[in-house]
C-alpha cells in the first residue's frame, strides 16, 4: 500500500474515463486516452490546482461535496464512491459524507444479467438491491413467491414483507433467523447513514418497533448460503437451499434457491407446471 492511495485512485480513474464517456470531444495529440486534469476539474467544478494537490497527495481531506462532485464526474459506481470516501479519510460528519456518496438504489437490471436469470429457469432466483427491493426474478421465483405475498409491494421489498406482512411469520418457520439475516444485509450492504437505508430503518422502526430496531442495533454479518424452511400455501412444506452472489458495483445481490430434497423438487416442478425432474435436489 502506498501513502497516497487517494491520489492514485483519482489519477487512475481519471485516466480510465474517455472523453466520449463524459460528452467531450476526443481532440488531437492526447498523451493519454483518459481525461486531462483540466477536463476533470471543469466537470467537477473545482480548480486544476486543487485537483493536482489531491492527486499528488498534498491535500488529503477534500470535503464531502468535492468527493461527490468527483464521483459524479468520473461516473463512479456505488462501491467505488464508498471506496473514494474511505480513502479520503474524511473526519467530518458521517451522515453528510454518506449522503454525498450515495446514488439511488438501482431498480433496473442489465440485459445481460436478465439473460443470466433466464438461463437459471426454472430455479427460484431473484435480484435484490441494498435496501431489499426485488429488482428482477425468474419466472420460477414468481410462481413460488406470488402466493406468499412476496411480490405484492410496489416495488416488492423483502424487508417490508418480513416485518410488516402478517403472512411472513406463518410462511417461514425460521422467521427469526431469516429476519436476523436480512437486517444484517441491510447493515452491511451500505452505510447506516445512507439516506435510503436511514429512511427504511426509520419507517420500520416506527411501524414495527423492537423486532426490527433491536436487530438493527446488533452488528452481524449475513449468511451467504444456507437452508430455509417454507410453509407454502400451495406446495406445502419446502426445504430450500440458497446461495448469494454479491454484485458490488450495482449494490445488488443475486439469491438462487435450490430444492434441498426430492419432495421439494417435485413440489416446485408442479408449481412451474413441469413434469417432475426439471429441478434436482441439492443438499449440503
Describe this structure in a few short sentences:
The chain has 284 residues and is an alpha+beta fold. It is 46% helix and 13% strand. The protein is elongated and about 65 Å long.
Succession of helices and strands: HHHHHHHEEHHHHHHEEEH
Q: Give the helix tally.
A: 14
As a percent range, the share of helical residues equals 40-55%
Indicate the mean pLDDT. 87
Commentary on this structure:
β3 and β4 form a beta hairpin. The chain is elongated and about 65 Å long. α1 crosses α3, α2 (37-44) crosses α3 and α4 packs parallel to α6. It starts with a helix and ends in a 13-residue tail after the last helix. Helix content is 46%, strand content 13%. It has helices spanning 5-16, 37-44, 48-56, 64-73, 78-88, 94-101, 111-120, 139-145, 158-164, 167-171, 175-189, 195-207, 210-216, 262-271; strands at 125-129, 134-137, 225-232, 236-247, 252-259. It has 284 residues and is α+β, with helices and mostly antiparallel strands. It has 14 helices and five strands. Residues 90-97 have low confidence and may be disordered. The protein has a five-stranded antiparallel sheet.
Q: Which helices and strands, and how do they pair?
A:
Blueprint: H1 5-16, H2 37-44, H3 48-56, H4 64-73, H5 78-88, H6 94-101, H7 111-120, E1 125-129, E2 134-137, H8 139-145, H9 158-164, H10 167-171, H11 175-189, H12 195-207, H13 210-216, E3 225-232, E4 236-247, E5 252-259, H14 262-271
Antiparallel strand pairs: 1-2, 1-5, 3-4, 4-5
Helix pairs in contact: 1-3, 2-3, 2-4, 4-5, 4-6, 9-11
